[in-house]
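cron nightly-structures :: item 1 of 1
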Amino acid sequence: MKILVLLAGVADIRFPLHTLNISAEGLIEEGGTVRRLLSPFDEAALELALKLRASRSDCRIDVLLLAGANSEAMLRTVAAFRPDSLRRLDLQPTCLWDAQLTARQIAGLLENEDVADLLLIGREFGDLDEGSIPVLLAQRLNYPLFALAQHAEWAGEQVRLLRERGADEESVLVCAPLLASVTNDKRNKLRHPLMKNVMETKRMSFADVTASVAEVTVLPLASLEAARVSVREGQCRLLEGDTARQASELLAYLNEQGVGA
């Protein structure tokens, strides 16, 4: 089985957010020192692939990691887990808020490569994705989509993907090329790499691959409009102000309802 893992990374919350500006073309410009790391969803997707490979010698893991700030450090982090191939993915242009464009770029690249049996991607592909890129990518590739996967295991010669829905557990067998978006779960917490593998990554270099499209129509940030704000109505009442004011409003409401009288 050939597994392809797509990783993007997110801003490291241990450091102040770097400066962001919008260029004249309506694209994001990043200034200062940018630090990124694998998100919990990235880690979960990678761990599922590692678990499957650990049980089968004929299982191959290929990784594409999004280029950008701090990508070199993230590449070395992933390299310590010894994927069979690891490449830096450069999107031209990189506009993750434009999910349609991003899906088109990645799909165009993958359509010209050997087909993977299973494509794993985090439920969100980086900070600027709200979860639509995996859906649109599956549509572009014409792959079935199994969303919010939490676990993967071998069932004979096939892989079974599982997720939980309330008290129920849902599963699907991978019988043809399939894309699974992965969410974090205690069963897919990323393992620690071997220290010798970590040390070996210091001497590694990594291949780059560019994903672009012939005709680029970018949705510029400058053209986006703020969402319409409306007052919530119904039975719910929101308490405003600081803690003291909220407590005072809550006490007044309880008195109105005769509570404690």
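cron nightly-structures :: done
Residues 40-55 form the longest helix (16 residues).
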